[in-house]
Structure prediction request, 331 residues.
Amino acid sequence: MQKLLRGSKVIGTGHYCPERVLSNHDLESMVDTSDEWIVTRTGIRERRIAASEEACSDLAYVAAQRALEAAGVDPKELDAIVLGTVTGDMQFPATACLIQNRLGATNAAAFDVSAACSGFIYGVTASHALISCGRMNRILVIGVDLLSKIVDWQDRATCVLFGDGAGAVVLEACEAGEGILGTYIKSDGSLAELLHIPSGGSRQPATAETIAQRGHFIKMKGDGVFKYAVRAMEDAAKRVLEQASVALEDVNLIIPHQANMRIVDAVVKRLEVPMERVVVNLDRYGNTSSGTIPIAFDEVVRSGRVKKGDLVLMFTFGGGLTWGSVLLRYI
Ligand code: ACO
Prediction:
């Protein structure tokens, strides 16, 4: 692979989750489920749900402001805003453009990345490349999803899994070999139907029939996703470590995509790392899709659990199927 002359590093993080908490006990009165089933199958105890008037850009905007404030960066200094989501405010324009306007980031290009739960990792990967090649100096990367707006609240197999939230980081140019040490992304479109929304696009535009068939909600084959997720995340973790010539024992903190505790446990077991080094917050937020990793990252930054100089490994998987990883030194 070509040697890069420069790299990028995280200089600020932020997150925002809606105020409303929906507990497993609340769900018991909505669908045929129980707190016991949800906790033992997923590890999730509660999740945040956006208000009816709250949209993707509302959550992303607050997370972005917090990240910019932490970084001490004026929005006008941004060269780009890259936003990973599958629940944008509307089909188009990109929600990143709405954020650009709200922030007054008048010098920034803005685009969305559609990679489901991998949106943030894909966004960091693209942004790191844009900075490393010298085209840009400062990029705001956001991972945000409001799956509560596209989940079928009559389908107990999916509605208990998801929550809403946004996280953001500001990346800035640095010397090669500092900050982000490796990125890896991959996809397998032959498995698209494991996790998808069949209607509402150009294949099946919205009609009274598609609405009656509940075609605008998430359809998931949970067991297939589960099996693939474990293998894909293990692979993504190993590949990025290999790319950066870093041993797993030297990694201080691991931030896996927060989909399901059993998936996290299975990956951690395969990687043979102690649980103390693994960040878990899915019990409080559920699966916020593109939001899980940047939310967890901001929490460990603000709590001091991650320290300057620490090596942080992040990995994810999502609809597409897509998966990927980022290895960085927090400086
Ligand atoms: N409450 C009670 N019972 C339930 C519920 C529920 N909420 N949901 C399903 N069940 C029932 C099923 O109907 C089934 O009943 P049956 O045996 O009578 O048919 C039984 O529980 C077992 O169902 P399984 O699907 O076999 O349960 P499993 O142990 O596989 O767990 C789960 C299901 C939690 C969905 C798991 O497969 C999983 O986590 N998969 C990964 C899903 C995921 O992470 N998706 C997000 C992908 S990321 C992205 O891009 C958005």
In short: Residues 85 and 289 are 8 Å apart (CA to CA). The longest strand covers residues 164-175. The chain has a mean pLDDT of 97.
